[in-house]
Amino acid sequence: MAKGDDIQERLIDFAVRVLKVCDHLPASAAGKHVGNQLLRSGTAPAAHYAEARGAESTADFIHKLKICLKELNETQVWLQIASKSNMIAAEKLADLQSECISLAKITNTSITTARASLTPAKSIREEDALPYCTDTTSQPSVINNQQLTIDN
Fold first, then answer.
1. What is the rounded distance in angstroms from the CA atom of residue 31 to the CA atom of residue 66?
2. SS3 (DSSP) at 101
3. What tens digit of pLDDT does each residue of 95-107 get?
4. Predicted structure pTM score
5. Domains, in order of start, for the chain
């Protein structure tokens, strides 16, 4: 089993459980609204985690994991809304809510670990730090680090 496969599998299982919950929400306007939101946020973390695993850099990995975490946090809110509005009995959602919190904690820990592995030089590429940096020696003017210099 490759690194991250276990979390990926848990996120997929979580998404499947969310799908099943959505199938049992009432057909009312409120039930449909909560169901649609829950479908989106509850199934997205698995896909975002898969994207993070294929990230092009540590910064990209962190960015994609942060999106995964945001979706898990949103899912937790929608599960609370479904529970508090009695769309589904609270005891039926307790395990799913617990898994959501657990997955969010794991994701947050992964973000923290990945951030710690970044050195200042790796965290921001030099060209990303200079938003208007153009090095064109063939042109008479060069904008570098937001300052205009005239070449003679």
1. 28
2. helix
3. 999 999 999 999 9
4. 0.76
5. 5-118 (1.20.1440.60), 125-152 (no CATH)
